[in-house]
Amino acid sequence: MADNTPGKPATADDNQMLALIAEVGEALNRSSYPVPLTKQVIQDITSAYEDDISTEVFATYIIALDRANGKVAVANTGSMYRFDQVAQTESLIHKLRSAKVPIGQTLKDLRAVATAPPPVNAVARVVGYMLMALGFALCFRMSVPATIAAVLISIPVAAILLWSTGKGTLATLMPFLLTFLAALAIAIWAIHGGTSDPVRLAVIPVVTLIPGAALTTALMELTAGEMIAGATRLISALVVLLSMAFGLALAIDIVGMPSTHLQDLTETQAPSWVLWIAAPIFAIGNILNLCTPKRDWFWTIALAFGAFWLNELLQNVIQPAFAGGVALGITLLVAWAINAHVKGNPSVLVMYLPTWWLLVPGSMGFVAVTGAITEDHQLGSLGTNAALSLLSMAICMMVASVLAPYVTRPLPWRRNAADDDGGVRPT
């Protein structure tokens, strides 16, 4: 255990603990954790190891400060983790919060997670991306030709994304570049082939690039008083959103697509029964593309299916903008309960994030911004609903975070049982 007596020289343990805290913060940032929860986890770890390291957590970097020894560690956030990396990170951090593992070994394990190769080959990940596009198209009940187009265009998009991962500046251009290329192909197809709903069709192959999760996380951080982290994340997400909308609008303008072709809803819809398979297909696509661990497969599919239909039912009672928020809040509580009480402790984020993407509030905002750029009022009017959806989701997720300790408490018959492994649980 680190000795933090003022005036003493820093020991190897002190330096390792400082580095560990910085890298834990980075790993949680790369796992899409909001800043308030990251701070809570770090506080739990320092308390467990009886250390006194203060931190400043931001959206893109972490500062850890050992005041007793005058040492500082800074970690910059890299690219987002795959789901296998998220699950491994949560497992390590769960052990750290109970002070069950040596600091030095955990530091090595965290670094190994960051550089771990994908456990799924590239072909399977591309197939997964195709299934995600198919699931989205079925959610919108798009026509058969439009669905086929979305799946076909997702193939080069997926290949380019896998190739550009970790390539720094080039990777940051991908949202704009891929949106422009996908929209250009769809716009040309729509002009010459009469494809319906070209805007939605252009969105589907790149929908996972839309920073909807970042927008919601930013709103959560701002509401929780994390102004710097929330504001920087919000600005970053809006820049990505605007660049993608600009790419879509630019493609439409180059092709010269008339406003009569810009529609928000498909003219020829698929039969309603496709909605029953849309969520499972999308979830399976996530499992393949993002390398979900086997222990999370069933729950990922179950939560996506349940949340999708809960959202559909709630829309009969309340406005759609609020229904998505309530559905996601309930789903998040269920995910925490599963993590706490199911053997193997499936990862909360791994189970939950596909459900979040499935409800696509981010794509609504994307389409709305595109409508404003192209002066199409039918599309632009979606902006109000998109903003309400994001705000509703942020608030409901915060409420779920407050209620989470009540659903994660040990059950009476398990109160004396030891935890084997698990994710990051709220306290």
Automatic annotation (TrEMBL):
Residues 20-254 form the Threonine/serine exporter-like N-terminal domain. It comes from the Bacteria. The chain crosses the membrane at residues 144-163, 170-191, 203-222, 234-252, 272-290, 297-314, 320-338, 350-374, 386-407. Keywords: Membrane, Transmembrane, Transmembrane helix. Belongs to the ThrE exporter (TC 2.A.79) family. This is Threonine/serine exporter family protein. It comes from Gordonia defluvii. The lineage of its organism: Bacteria, Bacillati, Actinomycetota, Actinomycetes, Mycobacteriales.
